[in-house]
Amino acid sequence: MLLKNVKVLRPKTTKIQKRNGIGYVYQVIGKSYKKDKKYTVENRKLIGKMIDEEWMIPNEYFEQYYPDVCVEQEIPEFSDTLRIGCFLVVQKIFRDLQIEDVLLSIFGDLGFFIEDIVSYMITNESCTFQYYSNFMRNHPVMDKNIRDDTQISRLLKYNIKEQDINLFLRAWNQMNNTKECIYVGYDSTNFNTNAYGIELADYGHPKVDEGLPQYNLAYAVNQKDSTPLFYELYDGSVIDNTELEIMLEEAKEYGHEKLGVLMDRGYISEKNIKALRTKGYEYILMMKQNQRICQEIIEEYGAVVQSLEGYYIGEHGVYGTTVKKQLYGQETNIHVYYDDIRASEEKVALMSRYETWEKEIEKKVSKKIATEGEMKKYRKVFKLKYDQNGYLVAYQRNSRYIKEEIRNLGFFFIITSEEMSASKALDIYRGRDNIEKMFRSLKSGIDFNKARVHTTESLKSKVFVTFIAMIVRNELFQKAEELRKKNRKAYTVPGMISELENIECTRNSVGKYRRKYALTAKQKMILKQFDMDEKYIDRSIGEFSY
Fold first, then answer.
1. What band does 113 get if pLDDT is binned at 50, 70 and 90?
2. CA–CA distance, 212 with 210 (Å, rounded to integer)
């Protein structure tokens, strides 16, 4: 077998024999006399083949005859030692979830390239591609060759079309659709950008204001297992409340006839509730406490909920009950809750803020320079008195308003379209933190705080690839649930990636990779969650042909 990435000057004592235009190099190792033909023949051993007039590629027998010959070794594309654990787990997830099949059917062999990019994002916990080729030199690839950041840029800009993305999302949602109603958590986040070529970038209401335009990204996530189902990329100036109707249309297009939507208070409005009812979708939403109906419920039921032990929901440590009220033209289940610990904490924070305000007002009174227009934020909490020139001269606390504020502390409200207990509604809603964790994972787990692209086309493509990465990363997290029950810290996603990266294989003298070390107990435990073992690892290594 010819050695890889090696060449030597052909020793003059060797002989060349050509077959089909290829020069094979032989070493004469002896002579034999043929009695029947009455002549001597040479005994030869094949030791390599020519690549030009002077240089040859040796095989494994060359060193036996020329141990002192200087062998020039070219740097191989792939390292002699590869970190394989995380790659093989990610590859297994791609195949188990049938994502690989869908990608190949849509993108052809470029599907393998996309798979490698996702593997890089998860393993390196980064979506910066500047050093992609350096990192992948020490890792296996599905694409057979190591690409570079320029090729990734070209893929994102030219090879991933919007219709291809829609095809994938349709297929993915069909694969994850059921006849039963599934609840999905829906929420959005925004990203600042200084790229002028992104048409979606606009000034809106960023969570972190850097004085830059931003674009918005919304995810719909299966509430049961946190699987991302679909997403929406939209203009940074569009508020969350107005984007919901578009999401509902997309859900229908993706084949979701039975769906429940779980959202925070930012999405509650008459328009959105009626849209959900029209589509026939169930919903669970947090209400805004300043809504009039919430104040009415506190006045009617607040004292009862606070005082009666029968309303206590032990698993959540709050009091709660369900009432039926007319909301936007239809009788609706409204679940009212009271958290006494939260009320106490909020009271301390509220009174501290009012004391700070009072000190600020005292300074303004002493200087007699504050006008009515400057005192807007204090008007409800304090009764303010001005002189004939319009300057603040005196104040006192508005005790009635403050008492009402304190009375409302600790209450929160959830509405549901389905009949369910206050306990069940809260149980489902508090599971909504999976989408918040998804966004944290998106921004920190694969470092997507900045997209680092400069065109709308590239942004859409990169968001698509990161969406696939989030599907795979979530599966990595979900499969280790039983392990986390035993040791929560050891089996986080970063912890498992770190452990899997220690599984290595090394190239031997004939160019074949072999596993370097025995698997640790922890590695075996992780692999077991994905139906993988040492035999699976060794069989996969045997398929490497780099």
1. very high
2. 5
CA dihedral 363, 365, 366, 371 (to 10 degrees): 100
Summarize pLDDT for 199-239 with one digit per residue, the tens: 887 887 767 777 788 889 999 999 999 999 999 999 988 87
Residue where one domain finishes, among candidates 48, 73, 98:
73
d(C-alpha 421, C-alpha 430), whole Å: 14
Contact status, residue 228 vs residue 251, Cβ threshold 8 Å: no
Q: Is the confidence at residue 72, as pLDDT, over 80?
A: no
Alpha-carbon distances of 387 from 314, 374, 393, rounded to whole Å = 55, 15, 6
Q: Tell me what pLDDT residue 434 has.
A: 87
Rounded Cα distance, 495 and 535, in Å: 23
For residue 203 the two structure tokens come to 């000034």
Please state whether beta strands 6-9 and 72-73 pair in parallel, antiparallel, or not at all (unpaired): antiparallel
- Say yes or no: 166 and 260 in one domain: yes
pLDDT tens, position by position, 295-335: 999 999 998 888 777 789 999 999 999 999 999 999 999 99
Give me the domain span that covers residue 205: 161-264+432-453
Query: Is residue 74 very low, low, confident or very high in pLDDT (cuts 50, 70, 90)?
Result: low
Q: Which residues contact 306 (CB under 8 A, 6 or more apart)?
A: 319, 338, 340
238 and 189 part of one domain? yes
Number of domains in the chain: 4
User: To 10 degrees, the CA torsion angle through 270, 273, 276, 277?
Assistant: -90
Residue 491 lies in a domain: yes
- Average pLDDT rounded to a whole number, residues 463-484: 97
Nearest CA-CA partner of 295 in 332, 325, 272: 325
- 91/308 Cα distance (integer angstroms): 55
523 and 535 together in one domain: yes
- Residue 215 phi/psi, 5° resolution? -125, 155
Q: State the Cα–Cα distance between residues 104 and 101, nearest whole angstrom.
A: 5
Distance separating alpha carbons of residues 522 and 298, to the nearest angstrom: 53
**For residue 327, is it within any domain?**
no
Token reading at 213: 């335009």
Beta strands in 275-317 (DSSP E): 282-286, 312-313
Does residue 210 sit within a domain?
yes
Please check whether residue 518 is in contact with residue 538, taking contact to mean a CB–CB distance below 8 angstroms: no
DSSP 8-state assignment for residue 444: I
Residues, the chain, total? 546
